[in-house]
Amino acid sequence: MPLRSRPGLLLPAALLLLALLPGCTGEPTDSDGVFRVTCTVGMLGDLAREIVGSEGEVVTLMGPGTDPHLYKPSPGDVERLGASDVVLFVGHHLEGRMAEVLGRLGEQRTTAALGERIAPELLLRGEEGAPDPHLWSDPSRWSRVAIEIGAVLAAADPSNGDLYRTRAAACGERLVALDAEMRERLSLVPRGRRLLVTAHDAFRYFGEAYDFEVVGVQGPSTDAEAGVRHINDLVTRIIERRLPAIFIESTVPPRTMEALIEGCRARRHTLRIGGELHSDALGAQGSPAATYEGMLRHNVETIVTALTTVVEEP
């Protein structure tokens, strides 16, 4: 995804601030001795917080409902990044508009694009061959990211390295167990209804892992717009499969999904919104989806409930 310089001076100003920060001149980040870790997205932040434990402080830049594809770092974000000992991000262009800031920061701080540390054979690729960054929709794959977090933290803070590796291993094992739990729950969805239609193409790893056909109205990046022909073709597929529900996402406006509902209504097929899925961000603090594991459980229950419900045709 190309780096955007609009609006105006925000990104150049952020880069200038990065260059001027005392913590970005090779000096220690802070005099209080706190080990500071900054993560771009909540799916990383939740794992990092568990792995760091009481040995440090973890901050996540992008909160609930924030679209990482469109996120532009503020000067305040750059200041937080510059005050960090370790910066963790997904990579593969997920944080495309932060690319220049993260690249410049990597010259002076420990940074890790964790999605890019995963074996290439485990990555799915789009039509143009670019890796899909949305690994977290498959907890089995994301368990490998937990292990990588442990390795990065151990290298940056060797005195607590054994603790980080042990916690990362335990976290990874729990995510593998969650994968089995999800597989059993999703088995309730009849094979003919295993078509997951979402706002953008963020669930391909989920689809491969749990035998669902996945279609995003937009592509892997929310920068793309859905064309009329794609909408019409998707309406036809939905009707042919007698699909009862499609899903909105917490980080994507629902207008394109409403076009699908109207298109089906015009052809006398009842289609409804089956619920809101969390694709690129965790849920609000205090909600069931506020943690990574909670987010996945919320998504699974929403999908199972919507796709196993009988809907009367008009």
SSE arrangement, N to C: HEHEHEHEHHEHEHEHEH
> Which CATH class of the largest domain applies here?
Alpha Beta
Quaternary state reads single chain
- Secondary-structure-based class equals alpha/beta
Describe the structure.
By secondary structure, the protein is α/β, with parallel strands linked by helices. The chain is 41% helix and 12% strand. The protein contains 10 helices and 8 strands. The strands form 3 sheets. The protein has a 4-stranded parallel β-sheet, covered by helices on one side. Strands 5-6 form a two-stranded parallel sheet. Strands 7-8 form a two-stranded parallel sheet. Helix 2 (42-52) packs across helix 5.
A few lines on this structure:
The protein has 314 residues and is an alpha/beta fold. It is 41% helix and 12% strand.
